[in-house]
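In practice, a research group might receive sequence data for several interacting partners and want a quick structural hypothesis before committing to experiments. The following worked case mirrors that situation: the sequences arrive first, and a predicted assembly follows.
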Amino acid sequence: MRKPLFAANWKMYKTSQEADVFVNALLANPLPAGCDLVVCPPFTAIPTLAKLLHGETGVALGAQNMNPEEEGAYTGDIAPRMLDEFGVKFVILGHSERRALFCETDEFVAKKVRAALKWNMTPILCVGENLDEREIGMTAEKVSVQIRRDLKGLAAAEIGRIVIAYEPIWAIGTGKNASDRDAVEVCDLIRARLDEIAGAGVGAKVRVLYGGSVKPENIADYMKHATVDGALIGGASLKPDSFRDIAARGVAARG
Ligand code: PGA
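A structural hypothesis for the assembly, expressed as tokens:
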């Protein structure tokens, strides 16, 4: 049984002090049971949140990116062991903003996925099409290519440890969330690709999330479908009540 997962992607929002306020507010009220929660703050807030989220708080610490190399001359980047030092357990990789604004290729994303697995971190691998690709009927092709390239050469057991987030680019930060039918179609397609590359049954083991303008008001539409295992949430994860509410309503919709 796949446990629902709700991951907060704060992007370039919140100082460490603001992150401290958020987590204290989040932990002040009971968290929904029956799901995993992850907060992915900017790097500078990781040391503060590592202290607050230490132990059995029910909220895991994540990062939004990392360089795949162990160390080296990579000005401005952060290595896996630097995240590991603070108990980071999840890392968002291949987010469309990284791919588009920082020219990250599938080959580079694939290296990061390997590095995360080596360091026992769970990659949250983001895939998804842009509006032009959707309009010309290229969604399945785009997502399939990303899955094949980003997971190239991994063993079935490694793929089984990954989380995949389907994030249609046109739905990110736009307030125009994908329909539940579109999300279900692509989540199922992702599972089929995983079966193809890693063997039958692997697709059913992996948690597949939807992301793109998720809010408390629309999470149930997705979570009522068994193939959607949770959400990667940007804007609506910046307020503790809204993040908690999304998780609570998501779990309730799963029934
Ligand atoms: P959004 O962002 O929820 O603000 O659309 C989602 C994401 O980029 O992960």
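Before designing any experiment, note the following. The pocket of 2-phosphoglycolic acid is lined by residues 9, 167, 172-173, 211-214, 232-236 (CB under 6 Å). DSSP finds twelve helices and eight strands in the chain.
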